[in-house]
Amino acid sequence: MRAYPATLVGQTQRLLDEMDEAGIDAAVLMHMDYDYTGERLRVSHWDQLVQLAQVRDRYPDRFILFAAIDPRRGAAGVELLRMAHRELKIAGMGEFAPHFFGFPPNDRERCYPIYRACSDLGLHVAPNTSIVTSMNSRWCDPAYWEDVSNDFPHMNILLTSAGFPHWTDTALALCASKPNVYLDVGDWQTRFSADPVETVLRFVTGALQTDARHKILFGSDHPVYNPTVSEAAWVQVFTQEARRRKLPLSDEDLHLFFSDNAQEFLDMDVPWNAARRSR
């Protein structure tokens, strides 16, 4: 975010410009719950959510809002989630960050009250399942979400980053076998592989040949990865670069990956602009 303008208006316009350049019609806004991580932010957790809701309300056709809740908040966190749903009309919870918590996401005492609220409210959950530098990432193993998916069958779970780089097989197996588990490929632009483009293309093309075909979503984690690759260039990996490397995705594949599967996960009607996507 440091590369973005200082004002919220400036940041929003920059993000919209990048989405337009990439041909992205709609995006999910997520923030992090930093209150228990030792970081001191100038804007409170609730005020961050309010600001993001204002952005969403100004551009309702472009943004969908998720709220991050740290389970260490206890009962207060559950009430905060319910208030965010009631007052800010959030569509899901995320980023849910086990690398911050110090315990696994299938902890029934500390995490399940949040999932029960999400299930009751029809909210979707987007946990991080990737390795995070300088963090205790062992709790991000997607295997922990098998219990959660079984115990909350009506709550959709998006394994963001698809277990990259060490747990991708686990993430894909869960996605293929559990009706309420999805995955995305945000966070694959990193140094964890010698050729991240080849790595992500082979994963996506392979996943689209499995029972996870209708459950794999495009993801970017932008603007975090702006210094690594632009949003437009990341989209082009799956169109132009895929064709150049002889790993092409069919029109049906692109529809599923960029649009249809996201709409299924979100249970929303999100626009898909095929003309822009094919650039």
SSE blueprint:
Blueprint: H1 8-22, E1 27-29, H2 45-58, E2 63-67, H3 75-88, E3 92-96, H4 98-101, H5 112-121, E4 124-127, H6 145-151, E5 157-159, H7 168-177, E6 181-184, H8 196-207, E7 216-217, H9 231-244, H10 251-266, H11 274-277
Parallel strand pairs: 1-2, 2-3, 3-4, 5-6, 6-7
Structure explained in plain terms:
This protein has 279 residues and is an alpha/beta fold. Helices cover 43% and strands 9% of the residues. It has helices at residues 8-22, 45-58, 75-88, 98-101, 112-121, 145-151, 168-177, 196-207, 231-244, 251-266, 274-277; strands at 27-29, 63-67, 92-96, 124-127, 157-159, 181-184, 216-217. The strands form two sheets. It has a four-stranded parallel beta sheet with strand order 1-2-3-4. A three-stranded parallel beta sheet has the order 5-6-7. 43% of the residues are buried.
